[in-house]
# Entry
Amino acid sequence: MRFEHVFFDLDGTLTDPGPGITNAIMYARKKRGLDPGRREDYYKFIGPPMPQSFVEYWGVSMDEAKAILADYREYYTPKGIFENSVYPGIPQALEALKAAGCKLYVATSKPTFMSQRIVERFGLAPYFEMVSGSDPDRPDSTKADVIRAARDAFGIDMTRAVMVGDRSFDALGAAECAIPCVGVSFGYGTREELMQAGAVYVADTPADLAAYLLG
# Structure
């Protein structure tokens, strides 16, 4: 096999969280008396830490972004979290990697407690050694931070590790940790975005992904 340790992004890589995330964003806007906008306008929010997206796309301060995040979570935590689905072929790809001896980890910008609920709800927990997510009290947490958390918890040999994700943030976080990134084109990023950020390969399907990782 080409890699022994595989870090997986969650949103846009293992599952399609689009309905729940966009519903929660529209809820937060309506609560503030704003036009909820079009669902498609918020797909670009999927992947990066949510407060950073509010700052970047809405031009608010980080303090205001934290307040918007609290409104967002009023919808997302009890309901939107499960308006979500596993991408077809992902369980089979994870099974193939595990059978070959790979150690798998979730490395996501989503808070750990939410990520664990999703992984457990959709039957993915048995495939993973650890779910490493962000600290909800640290909106500045990065993808590199969650990769390092898993690395430190397991003493991972990073020379045999790889990050899998659908956005440039996954590739950039991997580079910060000195590991390669394999992109997936079935999430919310584009092939161009991933390649420009340094992805070494972009898989079009979960089966393609597993085949590349196994070498």
About this structure: Residues 104 and 180 are 15 Å apart (CA to CA).
